Amino acid sequence: QVQLVESGGGSVQAGGSLRLSCVGSGNTVIFRLSTVGWFRQAPGQPRDWVATITPNNNTKYRDFVKDRFTVSRDDSKNTVYLQMNNLRAGDTAVYYCYQQSMGNEHWGQGTQVTVSS
């Protein structure tokens, strides 16, 4: 069973930065072939897609994070990152990473990001 573990969340003031990491415990070859990325869930809201990076490093972002967030991956470490700059109060949420491949989907337990204005 693949486990994903996020880290790097915390509390920052508006305009600040955080870098989230997500390490997968599964097979490195499978991770390399996986689409990975991030969702977030604010209190009382549904889980919302944020960013994705494909096995060939194509990236996609939601409009509300474009030019502020950057998703990247290091397949040698089974790790996906989310660099978040110019954070806003509206970015406050629990951030979840996911790994999708071969018809399977795995999720991390989430890491809290709190941005104060």
Regions with pLDDT < 50 over 5+ consecutive residues? none
Could you give a short account of the major beta sheet? Answer: 7 strands, mixed
The value of Rg in angstroms is: 13 Å
Total helix count? 1
**N-end to C-end Cα span:** 40 Å
In helices, the fraction of residues equals under 10%
- Overall pLDDT score: 96
| SSE run | EEEHEEEEEEEE
| Beta-strand content bin | over 45%
Shape by Cα distribution: globular
How many strands in all?
11
Structural class: mainly beta
Please provide a written account of the structure.
With 117 residues, the protein is mainly beta. The protein has one helix and eleven strands, in the order βββαββββββββ. It has one helix at 28-32; strands at residues 4-7, 10-13, 18-24, 35-41, 48-53, 59-61, 69-74, 79-84, 93-101, 104-107, 111-116. Strands 2, 4, 5, 6, 9, 10 and 11 form a seven-stranded mixed beta sheet that branches. Strands 1-3-8-7 form a four-stranded antiparallel beta sheet, with no helix packed on it. The radius of gyration is 13 Å and the shape is globular.
